[in-house]
Automatic annotation (TrEMBL):
The lineage of its organism: Bacteria, Bacillati, Actinomycetota, Actinomycetes, Propionibacteriales. InterPro entries: SBP_5, SBP_5_dom, TAT_signal. It comes from the Bacteria. This is ABC transporter substrate-binding protein. Pfam families: SBP_bac_5 (PF00496). Residues 136-557 form the Solute-binding protein family domain. It comes from Kribbella karoonensis. CDD domains: PBP2_NikA_DppA_OppA_like_4 (cd08500).
């Protein structure tokens, strides 16, 4: 992932959130035609039972080593939230189309080198990060990172997981020029030189990464799981399996690719790395894929016999034997299945404000409870006017703060909230919430009032005093002012909400045209600087971070700078491409770069506040409303799920391996 590429943390999730407690998560369960109760096959673990009967039977047959030979020397201990410790059962859930792999990654495979603690609230620094597959240390300057894998850690095929796997993944996968022809992602390079950090094997379990200047965002990005995704990415992959597809280790790798019907070894490697379509690759996750994505109407998984965590009584996790994730094509289908009680635990896609009344009304019939997921999104819809537009007339107009302020005052946010978001949320600009350490009142509340008089005053101040016979304001070129707003079809609420904005802007003399396009086309148009404006949701402000993060208040990448893509391209290319930003924007960028490299959390917070104050003064995005919390459902016989969970990598943040099923 080259510098400036969007984060894998997919911010487009519509109205999702989360807040973690101790240990819980989600993984799909049994099928649509399965008439067994959700906890069928689950049985309480007896005092002397340390593993699933499913695995004990294999041990007794001699086809699987004894548990003591499968666990690491000191396995992590995860205490079940409700004390429920039944083995067995199938966890049913759903994903929305085959593209919804984020559910699979976060529910069934959130096992990075180190992870977020379940009670994460988003404080700067490392306090909310904990060890996972490895122990780790960081020097005071955030220059030297040491990762020591757990002694005796094994892959799902029983092979040892060692420093060679970690070294291979960083150097030969994540940082291989053949696999990444567009350049290395800058989390692995020293900020002062742009050169790859020194990556060395210390012993059979330990790898050390040494930078020449601070790189404090590395741990945050690992915990965010941005390296855990489809493609030539990762932090810990099994070398013994993947080296057969890598040209450095197999001179016949291109021949293998040709035989597989793909262009080159890089294409084959990328294909094989996708765990959801390739069940052959070994894993460290609690469950391993049996029926891959695309081969059936569901993805099925079964327990990993070498999973390396235990509960507080020394019993091997996970408790649940199998998972089944149905691939549904429509959110309404998922909603109906939720109301019918067909899922053991389900979160995502259906949890909108509009659906909550019917979900709540069907709790008794469906035999489920609702858990809350406080959102980490900060706005339901922001509108970014492209201030680096190719048309000089539009560029000048969109860059005029008075114009943006006028359009903001022209929006009746209450009618949008009532009609589109079921009356939930409050008028809000694109800004961190009140409970955020980065909260800025000016940024959050300026130009919010629906007031046609104020709107017209600001538009007049922007120089739009001349009007056509039908009341349309005329621009500097004498033409009626018109703004075409791109809307991704991934946001059906935006398609609906923008119509209310269109009506109100027309009332003050500004025409709004809408283009609803696929997400891929949307991104292509934005990256090409071929847009007037675009909508999106608004995420959180996180420092330290990588350039891949979406930072809505400083134009550092095309993932969030829909209001200034040319400036973002200038920043990404160190001034070689794009459009030179104004002085205040450049000041922001310098502060942002400094904050990304600042190891002291208190100093990072102060730098972040300075960045946001400039954003408040500049007023980049026009926001609509704060985001209501989303929610999920859990069957009454599905246990150890907290009443709330953090949106951060939800539900993986609450340890899905300790979910349990049964009466």
């Amino acid at each position: 992932m080259p510098k400036g590429t969007e984060s894998m943390i997919n911010r487009r999730r519509l109205l999702q959130g989360g807040l973690g407690l101790l240990a819980v998560a989600t993984v799909p369960g049994c099928g649509f035609f399965d008439t067994k109760p959700a906890g069928s096959g689950a049985q309480a673990a007896t005092a002397g039972e340390k593993e699933s009967p499913m695995l004990k039977a294999l041990v007794d047959k001699g086809s699987l080593p004894a548990l003591a030979d499968r666990l690491p020397k000191n396995p992590p201990v995860i205490k079940p939230l409700e004390g429920k410790a039944q083995y067995g059962g199938t966890w049913r859930s759903a994903m929305l189309t085959q593209e919804d792999t984020q559910w699979l990654w976060y529910a069934m495979r959130y096992e990075p080198l180190l992870r977020w603690k379940p009670d994460k609230v988003g404080k700067p620094g490392y306090d909310e990060i904990e060890a996972n597959t490895c122990e780790y240390t960081v020097d005071a300057e955030s220059k030297v990172y040491t990762f020591t894998l757990r002694e005796g850690l094994k892959w799902s095929d029983g092979k040892p997981c060692t420093a060679d796997d970690l070294l291979f993944t960083i150097l030969e996968v994540q940082c291989d020029e053949g696999l990444h022809p567009d350049g290395l992602y800058d989390a692995f390079t020293s900020p002062d030189t742009g050169k790859l950090a020194k990556v060395e094997k210390v012993d059979e379990r330990t790898v050390k990464m040494t930078y020449t200047s601070p790189q404090p965002s590395l741990l945050v990005q690992i915990a965010d799981a941005i390296f855990e995704r489809e493609g030539a990415y990762g932090m810990l992959l099994p070398k013994h399996y993947f080296q057969q597809f890598h040209l450095k280790y197999n001179k016949n790798a291109n021949a293998l690719a040709k035989k597989a019907g793909v262009g080159s070894w890089t294409d084959l490697f990328t294909q094989k790395q996708n765990p959801w379509t390739n069940p052959d690759q070994p894993t460290l996750a609690a469950w391993k894929v049996e029926t891959p994505l695309g081969k059936s109407s569901a993805v099925t998984l079964t327990r990993n016999p070498y999973y390396w965590k235990v509960d507080d009584a020394g019993r091997q996790l996970p408790y649940i034997d199998n998972c089944r994730v149905e691939v549904v094509q429509d959110a309404q289908v998922e909603l109906l299945k939720v109301m019918n009680g067909e899922f053991g635990m389900q979160y995502r896609n259906f949890g909108t404000p509009q659906n909550k009344p019917v979900v709540a009304q069907n709790r008794q019939k469906g035999g489920y409870k609702i858990f809350e997921v406080p959102t980490q999104l900060t706005n339901t819809m922001v509108i970014g006017l492209n201030m680096t537009h190719k048309d000089p007339v539009k560029r000048a107009l969109f860059a005029n703060k008075e114009f943006r302020a006028g359009l903001s005052h022209a929006i009746n946010r209450k009618e949008v909230i009532d009609a589109v978001y079921a009356g939930q949320g409050e008028p809000w600009q694109g800004a961190p919430p009140k409970d955020s350490p980065y909260y800025n009142e000016q940024l959050a509340t300026q130009f919010l009032e629906f007031d046609a008089t104020k709107a017209n005053q600001h538009l007049d101040a922007a120089g739009l005093t001349k009007k056509s016979a039908d009341g349309k304001r005329l621009g500097a070129d004498g033409k009626p002012v018109s703004v075409t707003v791109l809307v991704s079809e991934s946001f059906p609420d935006h398609v609906e909400a923008i119509e209310f904005v269109k009506k109100r802007w027309a009332a003050v003399g500004v025409e709004l045209r809408t283009q609803a396009v696929s997400e891929d086309l949307y991104k292509e148009r934005v990256k090409g600087n071929d847009h007037d404006a675009g909508t999106w949701t608004c995420g959180t402000f996180v420092l330290p971070t990588g350039t891949g993060g979406d930072h809505y208040w400083v134009p550092t990448n095309d993932g969030s700078a829909r209001y200034g893509i040319g400036w973002a391209q200038w920043y990404q290319s160190d001034g070689k491409k794009g459009i030179t930003p104004p002085a205040e924007v450049q000041k922001q960028m310098k502060l942002f770069t400094q904050a990304r490299q600042e190891p002291d959390p208190d100093k990072t917070l102060e730098l972040g506040k300075q960045i946001l104050q400039i954003a408040a003064d500049q007023f980049y995005y026009i926001g609509v409303s704060s985001v209501p919390n989303t929610y999920g459902v859990v069957k009454n016989d599905f246990h150890n799920v907290p009443s709330t969970m953090s949106e951060s990598v939800a539900p993986g943040i609450v340890h899905p391996e300790q979910f349990s099923m049964g009466q």
